[in-house]
Design brief:
Blueprint (H helix, E strand, L loop, with lengths): L1 E6 L5 H7 L8 E5 L5 H15 L4 E5 L14 E5 L1 H9 E2 L2 E2 L3 H14 L2 E5 L12 H20 L2 E6 L2 E6 L1
Parallel strand pairs: 1-7, 1-8, 2-3, 2-4, 4-7
Antiparallel strand pairs: 5-6, 8-9
Helix pairs in contact: 3-5, 4-5
């Protein structure tokens, strides 16, 4: 099963995604994609570690090529988060890489090996703000990835003010 959990910033999507693992009996993997760079990143990483403390997750850090992560077959995986994974894949060095198809393929390959894949992503691009070219390309790519993952997902849930709203499934 694949579940996509989306929502705006600080809307409760990570907390909700973690709650989907409460009754799981197989190995629970937290697939962390955030590169630990800067005070904000370290604060977010620490906040998420505290949130999942004592919940039975094994943390696997993989910043790119997530289909190559060392994850036991038939496990339950929480991928946190698509926005970070895209940034890591898209902005390597000084060039912007078109990686939407690669990321979707990597997700689908990972999904075939495991029992449950819950993906946390961000709702972006609806604010109407004009961004620089690199940011606009990132937002467009995340929108495309979210659409493709949603099409393949069994369930899509949007968190709104901490309330999960079923969009698909």
């Amino acid at each position: 099963m694949m579940i996509l959990v989306t929502g705006g910033s600080k809307c409760g999507k990570s907390r909700y995604a973690e709650s989907l693992f409460a009754e799981r009996s197989e190995q629970k993997i937290y697939l962390a994609t955030m590169l630990p760079y800067g005070d904000d990143a370290f604060s977010a990483i620490e906040r998420h570690r505290k949130m999942r403390a004592d919940k039975g997750f094994l943390t696997v850090e993989r910043f790119r090529d997530i289909d190559r992560a060392e994850i036991p077959e038939r496990s339950a995986v929480l991928l946190e988060c698509m926005g970070n994974l895209l940034a890591n894949e898209m902005f390597q060095g000084s060039k912007i890489t078109d990686c939407t198809d690669k990321i979707v393929s990597d997700i689908l390959r990972l999904h075939r090996r495991i029992n449950l894949l819950v993906i946390v992503t961000n709702q972006v691009g609806s604010d109407g703000i004009a961004y620089d070219a690199a940011t606009a390309a990132y937002l467009a790519a995340l929108g495309i990835i979210n659409q493709k993952i949603a099409a393949n997902a069994d369930k899509v849930i949007e968190c709104v003010y901490g309330i999960p709203v079923m969009v698909k499934g």
